[in-house]
Amino acid sequence: MWMETESKAEGVRRGRASVALRALNGLRLCTGDMEVMDTYMQDRFYVVQLVMWGLRGVSRVILANNPLSGALIMAALCWESCWKALLGALGLLASTLTAVVMGQDSGEVSGGFHGFNGMLVSLLMGQLSSAGDWYWWLLLPACMGSASSVFLYSALSSVFKRWDLPVSVFPFNTVIMLYLLCTGPDNPYFPHHTAMPPGAPEPNGTKLIAIEVIRGIPLGVGQIYTCGALGPSLLILAAVLLYSPLLTVHALLGSAVGTLAGLSVAVNHHFLYSGLSGFNGSLGCMAVGGLFFTFSWRIHLLSIASAFLSAYADIALGNLLGTVGLPASSWASTLLSTLMLLLTGSLATYRIPTGQVMAPEHNLCSHSQWEAGNPAATDIQL
């Protein structure tokens, strides 16, 4: 009798362990780059594939490559504003379909590389518009600007590939600046707000509120998608966590570094509280901290340096462009990340070829496996 009870208990434990193992394996399939999804989608309807390409493009904005992360981010945009979600989806669709019509590389289209610039263009047009939400005329420049980003991406990629550099968001930054310069703040059809320089003095000289500064750190990640509310920003962080925990740590670290940089030069409190002071630092930290470089303690320090440089460059560009009412967008992090990828010396050995970039954990595992099979590897290459 005792033996039967023991065997039943053992069977229950094994059953629970089996369920936990299946759940863990299922979770692993949903994290990282979800390569198995590409194989699964090959024979599906074109519309279904288009949705998958679009969701990968949504996540590409935050340097991820996961359709489930993209779905969470779209949910965050709907939470923030349905009008903003509509603009983002429209820009994403316009740029992706333009890439298909132009006959761009199918791998780039399915990977969302042509979608994320278009999405950012339409999102920032809506964010900067002074005509308010549901201003339907804005759909016209949003579609045209998003489509134009594909032409710029295609042209720049032929130049950047000579140095194995990603095009990144150069098309977005270029298109949005041209749009703002063409229309002007008082345009009768497409008016927009003028940008305030980060160094603008406080109008009322209020004291700094510490809890608002801390709240601005996760908001710095949300501001990458022009989200200024805490709930949607936390959902975007959850989307990054689904893709890569290491990338999430660097996203928050970079935003904190950007906030600290803003504090050190006494930027306007609005930039600290809203997360605008931290989002360029967040992007700069993520790009270096395990995405385009194999993670190590040296690369971790380099990612912090990249965050500081991106944040200070953003403040400098913001003060310069703010004199003519233009935002600095993400020029700082884009330029600094590109310069970091051109580094020479021992740190260059950590560089991952652009075509082989995947989730940081996958990059780290692949490097460890390579090193295990290479007895000549030294600690400097770790």
Mean pLDDT: 87
Largest sheet: none
* Share of β-strand residues: under 5%
List the helices and strands in order: HHHHHHHHHHHHHHHHH
Number of strands: 0
- End-to-end separation in angstroms reads 57 Å
Quaternary state of this entry equals single chain
| The named CATH superfamily of the largest domain | Ammonium transporter AmtB like domains
User: How many domain units?
Assistant: 2
**Percent range for helical residues?**
55-70%
Shape: globular
Radius of gyration: 22 Å
| Category from helices, strands and their pairing | mainly alpha
Figure out the total of helices: 17
The CATH class of the largest domain, by name, is: Mainly Alpha
Subcellular location: Cell membrane
Family: Belongs to the urea transporter family.
Pfam family, one: UT
Protein name: Urea transporter
Question: What is the gist of this entry?
Answer:
The chain has 382 residues and is mostly helical.
List the topology elements.
Layout: H1 2-30, H2 35-40, H3 46-60, H4 67-80, H5 82-102, H6 106-110, H7 116-128, H8 139-160, H9 170-183, H10 210-222, H11 230-243, H12 245-264, H13 269-274, H14 279-291, H15 297-322, H16 331-341, H17 360-372
Helix pairs in contact: 3-4, 3-5, 4-5, 4-11, 5-7, 5-8, 7-8, 7-9, 8-9, 10-11, 10-12, 10-14, 11-12, 12-14, 12-15, 14-15, 14-16, 15-16
